[in-house]
Amino acid sequence: xxxxxxxxxxxxxxxxxxxKRMMSVRLADIGWSGCSAVYGRPYRDRVIHLLALxxxxxxxxxxxxxxxxxxxxxxxxxxxxxxxxxxxxVKDNSFSLKExxxxxxxxxxxxxxxxxxxxxxxxxxxxxxxxQNPTSSSQAISPGPSERDAPARPAQDQA
Length: 159
Hints:
This protein is mainly alpha-helical and 159 residues long. The chain is 53% helix and 6% strand.
């Protein structure tokens, strides 16, 4: 009887590792870390929130959008959306988010990682700060570009 039970365990053990392997591949390919939450959002908003973090060329933006899932009708409308929400840099054919759209961003966008959220806060603080220097909020006078870009200075925050 014991031999039969062992045999039963062996025959059942065969498909189980295969199922586990299939599931792990699926999860890795789909990237469940917020994919479904982003996929349900309007395509225009997804484009805006990606362009807020950095400039993209159209093919790399499309590839990035496809990682989270993209419908064919959305894929076909990317050019029109880019005309609405982005400025084209003709030197390198990259797109950057139009300035007025930074006010509409959601800092808790489900497609953002913790790093993305931190980067967005930094970007937004630069855009809204009149001095254009996020570390100068407590300073009365903003340093000039050469001082601001200089390496370590004792008066500045080293974080």
